[in-house]
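Figure 6 in text form: structure in, sequence out.
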């Protein structure tokens, strides 16, 4: 044994003894070697208890060596890099690793929660459904929620990086054991583009623990030669990569670990591959099943294959006195491995009465006692296994001292991904396992995943799959097995180790008629632990079959769901975190707004200024100051995100007539018209102005948030419905930057800047368009207004916006110009009663709700026209947009409902602000029959009680439009 690691073998193993590594487990420092996993290093250091079970807090030791491990879930790392519920069997050891067990306090060796085990006889399956209903679930809720969960998520932001990648391959081989390597070699040899995916850091699979001769080479030499050949053929080899999901159309999700040492320094930790494959070859191996007997959860009771794996790959001995307990031939190889490593094998206990002579002779050569037709019925010990009670074929019961049991109940092919692909299973009585049958996708299982355990047989099968040929020979029987699903005993016999589901719980589920496999799963929580039932499912199905008088095949299986193993949520996001989670666009003038101290918000996917606060100003103060400044002098607002679509072609006018609820084709050159767009249900989906630039060219303006959506919507109509129209839609939103100059001094400021356009009132009236030069740069100018003041929307090339901004600010400095944010913009438009799509409208608002009855085209068709004729849209008491004003002039709360005499809602407030110009609150709202109720007083319910509100015309400021037309 190795000094300092009392259970480390002096020689052997795929570890680098020249590179010792220090690590901390549960606050105590240990030493391992490069090539170890955390699990193997704990075994080498004699650590038996690695955690506590979820429900009873029973002490648990390692049971497996791979992704099927259900006991050794650890909290890995410290601080922001602390990650919960990582399987110790998959954590590669690195210098300075820090880990601790989960679900225990203060430690796994002494857990206060272990007192729960004393009451375990009352905490049977489904007890929570029956116990916590009286007098009220809420009485228990706080305590239960505090006890729930395993590890803890770090409160700090995750500092690690995560990446994603997309790829296509002709063939993807999942699993790099002898079958997977053979399939990849065969596929590469016939010229296929191949990816080989292996969850381990090493290729080889079972060859890492079991010796074999392939093509005249021993296992290590054959693996090295295969890797060299694959690399030369250009095969993409992904180690430390788990295939977590198999989806439609041969889509795969692969999670690649990139930084097992967690060194940070900007290196990504995981990469999520999203892969499309022509064919998928599943060489995922098989998972060994435990045996179900009393006390089978004691620390020291392990799967036989896992024991062999630790001994041969890691030179770590899980115990000194082992008993091997099995119902098949394979576990006997573990007895040989233990004996060869210097451990004492006190007995091989096999439930079969007729044992293979060669197995018996191999044990006799090592002087290992063999008991046929016997079974372990109970274990003794608490934190350490002390002995096993064996019932012999004669009925005699003896206690055998041991500190480890290597158990094997057979093997279940790893067919989770096959099931996710839609594959159907069949039950194979010879293997006592479910094996793949048919699959609707181009997927095939090979090797032990296909139920083939004979080496020559699985290599032949894998070679055929790699070349694209069907398997022509049935599987050869590689080892004998006689199922022993449940073995008697007086104590708890565990089926699901992490969730503490026992054989007794399954029997109770059957008695209480929860016999469907899906009901069994939910009633007992079987298979719902982090291991997702990898070691427990088949045993549970077989026990349920026994309890209900059905066969295992008749009992059926649960659905295998994504992901195959737990994965970090951050890997789904990849780089889409922080600012990249939803990248926000910046307007051309962003730097200018930033320099002026603008406060930004996400508006329509853009970072837009909501205001430019001065020292000591609140958000409301800023809004009021800016709105008042526009009314008194001038304001400058950037509206670059407003959607701009050029609709060009011989049929452009006819097309827009079908799109807009009002007519567009008769618009004169250089003129502008406001319009509404509806969907097929007659619902308002966008508004804006349309400008006729030429006989066959219109500029359609949309809301900022609707720019991309409306462009796609127009394309859908053209490409799917009206394919005969000669029309092209060209989105030009980002090509043009827009600055809106608004206020009574707007014309004077524009003249001061210098323009080639006659901007006098007579030559350039409201709702007109001109092209020319502004401040020496080419520009498009629209006389439109969202504020009710004299306004010019000046569009220039996006790159020229900062220069135009500076010119207008300089020219307006002596005329009271201020930059204006969206908050003030909303105040100004509410004073004028202008509609805000998305604020004053929702998914039920039609043009008839906003007073457009007289505007709609009568003679020609448009999108949504027929829906507007439906009776509910023509009711006189339908919701209609109106102005609202409180008697005392205060601000009305948005969303507050107006009530009728019976206390029922008859409408609600949609927009509300305080007007610094008018000196009182202004509001808009939807009210039943509102158009004919102007002047009425209605009751408004607010959080402070009931208030009286007057129904007013929409426009509260300058209703005659004198300032607008100025």
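Output sequence:
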């Amino acid at each position: 044994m190795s000094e300092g690691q009392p259970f480390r073998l002096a020689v052997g193993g795929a570890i680098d003894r020249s590179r010792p590594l220090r690590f901390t487990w549960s606050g105590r420092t240990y030493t391992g070697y490069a090539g170890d996993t955390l699990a193997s290093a704990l075994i080498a250091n004699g650590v038996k208890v690695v955690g506590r079970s979820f429900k009873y807090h029973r002490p648990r030791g390692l049971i497996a060596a791979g992704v099927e491990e259900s006991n050794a879930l650890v909290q890995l790392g410290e601080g922001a890099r602390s990650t919960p519920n990582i399987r110790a069997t998959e954590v590669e050891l690195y210098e300075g690793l820090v880990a601790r067990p989960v679900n225990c306090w203060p430690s796994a060796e002494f857990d206060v929660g272990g007192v729960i085990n004393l009451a375990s006889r009352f905490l049977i399956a489904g007890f929570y459904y029956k116990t916590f209903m009286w007098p009220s679930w809420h009485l228990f809720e706080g305590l239960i929620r505090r006890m729930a969960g395993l590890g803890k998520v770090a409160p700090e932001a995750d500092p690690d990086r995560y990446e994603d990648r997309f790829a296509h391959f002709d063939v993807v081989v999942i699993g790099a054991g002898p079958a997977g390597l053979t399939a990849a070699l065969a596929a590469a040899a016939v010229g296929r583009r191949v990816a080989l995916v292996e969850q381990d850091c090493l290729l080889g699979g079972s060859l890492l623990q079991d010796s074999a001769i392939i093509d005249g080479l021993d296992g290590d030499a054959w693996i090295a030669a295969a890797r060299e050949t694959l690399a030369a053929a250009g095969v993409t080899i992904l180690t430390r990569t788990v295939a977590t999901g198999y989806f439609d159309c041969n889509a795969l999700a692969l999670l690649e670990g990139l930084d097992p040492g967690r060194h940070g320094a900007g290196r990504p930790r995981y990469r999520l591959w999203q892969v499309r494959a022509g064919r998928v070859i599943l060489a995922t191996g098989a998972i060994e099943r435990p045996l179900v007997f009393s006390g089978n959860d004691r620390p020291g009771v392990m799967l036989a294959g896992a024991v062999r794996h630790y001994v041969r790959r890691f030179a770590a001995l899980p115990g000194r006195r082992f008993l091997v307990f099995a119902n098949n031939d394979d576990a006997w190889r573990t007895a040989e491995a233990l004996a060869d490593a210097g451990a004492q094998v006190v007995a091989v206990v096999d439930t079969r009465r007729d044992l293979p002579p060669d197995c018996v002779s191999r044990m006799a050569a090592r002087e290992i006692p063999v008991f046929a037709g016997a079974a372990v019925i109970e274990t003794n010990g608490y934190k350490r296994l002390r002995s096993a009670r064996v019932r012999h074929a004669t009925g005699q019961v003896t206690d055998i001292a041991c500190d480890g049991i290597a158990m094997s109940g057979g093997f279940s092919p790893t067919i989770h991904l096959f099931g996710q692909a839609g594959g159907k299973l069949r039950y194979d009585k010879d293997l006592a396992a479910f094996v793949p049958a048919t699959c609707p996708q181009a997927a095939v299982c090979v090797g032990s995943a296909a139920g083939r355990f004979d080496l020559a047989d699985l290599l032949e099968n894998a070679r055929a799959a790699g070349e694209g040929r069907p398997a022509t020979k049935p599987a050869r029987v590689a080892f004998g097995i006689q199922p022993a699903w449940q073995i008697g005993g007086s104590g708890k016999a565990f089926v699901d180790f992490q969730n503490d589901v026992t054989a007794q719980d399954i029997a109770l589920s059957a008695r209480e008629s929860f016999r469907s496999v899906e009901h069994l799963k939910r009633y007992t929580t079987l298979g719902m632990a982090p291991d997702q039932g990898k070691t427990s499912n088949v045993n549970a199905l077989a026990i349920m079959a026994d309890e209900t008088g059905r066969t295992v095949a008749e009992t059926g299986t649960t659905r295998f769901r994504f992901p195959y193993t737990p994965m970090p949520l951050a890997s789904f996001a990849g780089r889409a975190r922080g600012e990249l989670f939803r990248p926000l666009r910046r307007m051309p003038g962003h730097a200018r707004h930033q320099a002026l101290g603008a406060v930004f918000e996400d508006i329509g996917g853009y970072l837009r200024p909501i205001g430019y606060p001065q020292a000591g100003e609140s958000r409301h103060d800023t809004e009021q100051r800016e709105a008042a400044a526009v009314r008194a002098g001038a304001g400058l607002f950037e509206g670059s995100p407003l959607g701009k679509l050029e609709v060009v072609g011989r049929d452009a006018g006819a097309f827009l007539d079908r799109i807009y609820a009002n007519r567009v084709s008769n618009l004169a050159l250089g003129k502008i018209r406001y319009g509404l767009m509806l969907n097929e249900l007659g619902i308002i989906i966008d508004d804006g102005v349309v400008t006729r630039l030429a006989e066959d060219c219109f500029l359609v303006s949309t809301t900022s948030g609707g720019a991309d959506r409306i462009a796609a919507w127009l394309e859908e109509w053209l490409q799917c419905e009206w394919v005969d129209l000669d029309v092209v839609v060209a989105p030009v939103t980002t090509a043009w930057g827009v600055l809106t100059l608004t206020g009574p001094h707007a014309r004077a400021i524009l003249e001061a800047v210098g323009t080639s356009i006659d901007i006098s009132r007579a030559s350039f009236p409201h709702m007109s368009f001109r092209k020319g030069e502004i401040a020496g740069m080419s520009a498009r100018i629209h006389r439109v207004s969202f504020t009710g003041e004299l306004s010019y929307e000046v569009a220039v090339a996006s790159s020229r916006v900062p220069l135009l901004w500076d010119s207008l600010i300089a020219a307006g400095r002596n005329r009271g110009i201020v930059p204006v944010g969206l908050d003030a913009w909303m105040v100004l438009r509410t004073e004028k009663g202008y509609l805000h799509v998305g604020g004053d409208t929702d998914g039920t608002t039609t043009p008839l709700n906003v007073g457009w009855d007289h505007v709609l085209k009568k003679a020609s068709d448009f999108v949504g026209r027929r829906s507007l004729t439906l009776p509910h849209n023509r009711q006189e008491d339908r919701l209609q947009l109106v102005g609202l004003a409180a008697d005392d002039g205060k601000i009305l709360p948005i969303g507050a409902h107006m009530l009728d005499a019976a206390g029922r809602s008859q409408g609600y407030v949609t927009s509300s602000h305080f007007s610094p110009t008018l000196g009182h609150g202004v509001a808009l709202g939807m009210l039943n029959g509102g158009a004919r109720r102007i002047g009425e007083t209605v009751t408004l319910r607010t959080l402070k009680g009931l208030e009286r509100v007057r129904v007013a015309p929409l426009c509260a400021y300058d209703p005659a439009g004198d300032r607008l037309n100025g």
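Caption detail: The domain at 291-408 is CATH 3.50.50.60 (FAD/NAD(P)-binding domain).
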